[in-house]
Amino acid sequence: MKSLLFAMSFVCAVTDVNAQPPSSVPASRVPASQSGPPLELGALHRAAEAADPRVREVELLQQQWVLRDQNVSVLRRPSLGVESLGQYQSDVPVSPFLSPTGIPLFEAPKATFDSYLRVEQRLFDPTLTPQAALQRAQLAEDQARVHSAVYPIRQQVNDAFFAVAALDQRVGVLTAASAELDARLRETAARVREGTAVPAEAAAIEASLLQRQQEEDELRTNRGAAVTRLSLVVGRPIESTAVPVLPDLSRRLGASPTMIGLLFASFGVTLLTVSLPMGAVSDRIGRRAPMVGGLVALAAATLLFSSAHSLPVLFAARLVQGAADAVTWVVGFAMIADRYDDDERGRVTGIVMSGSSIAIMIGPSIGGWLYELGGIRLPFLFVTGLAIISALSFLLVDVPPVPGTREKAPLFALLRLPAVAACVIAVVAVSSTLSMLEPVLALHLANLAIGPARIGLLFGVAAALNAALHPAFGHLADRWGARRMMLLGLSLSAFALALAGQSWSFASALAFQLPLVATMALMITPSLAYMAEATSLGGARSFGVAYGLYNMAWGAGLLGGPALGGFLFERLGFSRLVFAWAPALLAITWLLAGVQSPASPTEEHV
């Protein structure tokens, strides 16, 4: 059961990463008057690789291997040999007896010719197979060497491409600001003529306008340099007005930006509305049927994504995906609470969360590889297959029965438990913090001149650290108490968050982000175990409803965190934002520490 839950968390996380609507936002936003031919990242990658002469070396290596393999194959075939020998002797034996005419009876010929035909066939030669294998290994090594040498070109294309895209966005912002200042200048000039404003006010606005225009001209110059660099990398000229774009819903389906935002937000709608009811259903009818139904719905939603050609189909798939995500996570953690006692839940929960972190870490790579291998549909079909296999597995394994009887209104019984309410508040705090960091942290790192590759490396290291720490923190929660570890993680995350705002380079960002990742993991895994512990110690034991409440709290934080974080980031910057956010986490920790809750056997022992 433990390994199956690990696999289920892996499938759900891979689905969350890969089974998103098949779209992405435009890489740049420039005025329509300045738009030029589109630049597609994949086409630029192919053009850059084709322009590199080292790619030809791969073909030559393949041809060399074919010739060498043919040489080895020839040794297995029969061989024919022909030999001829001709001789001429000036002195040959002559018969001592003469004929009546006086001629010797016989005389050996002075010229002789001999010919031989030889056929050879090797019946057994143990060296031929190793020779062929050696040739194949040599080819793979040589091609890998060439591919490794060529691959950095893709990164050079990425750097130049996203530099152009970033400059386009900044030019667009400045253009909009200049248009606003120009309108204000005309309005102020009219007021000056009417005598309701002083000329100094119009002069100040005009100075600001000139400054914006100067910055815009500088950005356009930098953009031209970035386009030139991109053209040098890909080996062909690129127009200065070319716009880097990625396929998006606006182009393919005619969706407005508002519609795209609603599409992505629809996932959270069903996540919030389905979590609690399905948790209650699983408390009453058992865990197997909701879990299997959730995984089947997950497979159906992913399959819809692979064949969606209209917005209504995409909305339906996204809504079903949110509902399936809610069911699988809520029922999955309720299964853990049913099967394991308080002294084991943390360890098992940590293993499941580790599977989720591993999937988030490798999911994009798997999706990208499958996309290159079979197109846009193959990643969705792969995830569909994983979901179906997981559903069949839950039909075969022994799912523990739901213990005890249930209250008619377990939700209100849970909300009356102070420990459960404290856990819900802590979950909202950590989920809003994580969702707040997701958009603004990338912007902060970009402001530090850290490229996309290094930002990706930083997030990859964070995911790997998460996967390693969740089981360890789960074990500590079993030993020292889930509530104690949850509050410790929440308090330490405040200090780690303040430290993260002090980074000034890639090395410092890596060093300061890792403590934040560790403290967040220290809060998340124990909080999952503490929700079941608080529920059981309070006498309700409605684990389905409890984790439905947990999922709703997490979703509420995900909805509010990005909006508040983006609002404060624009006005305070990243460093001031995290310094303002950290005291709030400490205040929440102080308030929750005063909440009275029944002591668990683990905490009494400690």
What do these coordinates show?
This protein is mainly alpha-helical. The chain has 3 domains: 1-24 and 249-403, Growth Hormone, Chain: A (Up-down Bundle), CATH 1.20.1250.20; 32-53 and 151-246; 405-606, Growth Hormone, Chain: A. Helix content is 76%, strand content 4%. It is built from 19 helices and 4 strands. It has helices at residues 2-18, 41-51, 54-74, 128-150, 152-194, 199-234, 249-253, 257-285, 288-307, 311-339, 342-374, 377-396, 410-415, 418-447, 452-480, 482-500, 506-537, 543-593, 601-605; strands spanning 38-39, 79-88, 111-120, 243-244. Helix 14 (418-447) packs antiparallel against helix 17 (506-537). It is flat. The model is unreliable at 1-7, 17-35, 405-409 and 600-606 (pLDDT under 50).
